[in-house]
Design a protein that fits this description.
single chain; 184 residues; alpha+beta; Alpha-Beta Plaits; four-stranded antiparallel sheet; 4 strands; 51% helix
């Protein structure tokens, strides 16, 4: 019996204990590697999403760079205003470029290397119902044409208080890219 106990103790100490320690070490290493693989997969997904966003931005800049002439920008702006006027059921009365005088600020010019652009101020006069005019104004900066609304003058017209109509003069700046160099 003493021999059996000694053999059992030696077997436990020589075989089982080191093996269990090796198994515990392997399990700990496997957990570390599993967590690292999950982190790498999450990083790869984020990198893929960032690459998709970068591609969309590069495509947008290339498309907007195609409007590198004032006439192309003007045509795109007129198409935008006509489309939005029909959607919002308003009447665009006039679109007038604002002349640069000594009292008015000069057109905005960015000299950054990544995307130089210039801005041309203009006034857009519209007429329509209150909510339609406000929806139109709110929707203007949300399109492919880089249009920044800086100020709006509103004047009520007509005698119907239940369906008020407005004349609105929108002071805006249309920006256009001059040239984009390099690949994005």
């Amino acid at each position: 019996m003493l021999t059996g106990t000694i053999l059992f103790g030696v077997g436990l100490g020589v075989v089982w204990w080191p093996t269990s320690e090796t198994i515990a070490t392997i399990k700990a290493q496997a957990k570390i590697l599993y967590d690292e693989a999950n982190q790498n997969e999450a990083d790869a997904r984020r990198a893929s999403q960032l690459l998709a966003v970068a591609k969309r931005i590069a495509d947008d800049v290339r498309r907007l760079s195609g409007q590198n002439s004032q006439s192309a920008t003007t045509a795109a702006t007129l198409a935008l205003l006509a489309r939005d006027a029909a959607i919002h059921r308003i009447d665009v009365r006039s679109i007038v470029p604002v002349p640069v005088t000594s009292a008015s600020p000069a057109p905005v010019v960015s000299t950054g290397a990544a995307a130089p652009f210039t801005g041309a101020p203009l006034e857009i006069t519209v007429r329509g119902r209150f909510r339609d005019v406000l929806s139109f104004i709110a929707d203007l900066p949300r399109h492919d044409v880089l249009l920044d609304v800086s100020d709006v003058d509103l004047a009520a017209i007509g005698e119907s208080p239940s369906r008020p109509k407005l004349n609105a003069t929108i002071h805006a700046t249309v920006f256009r890219y001059q040239a984009v160099t390099g690949d994005m």
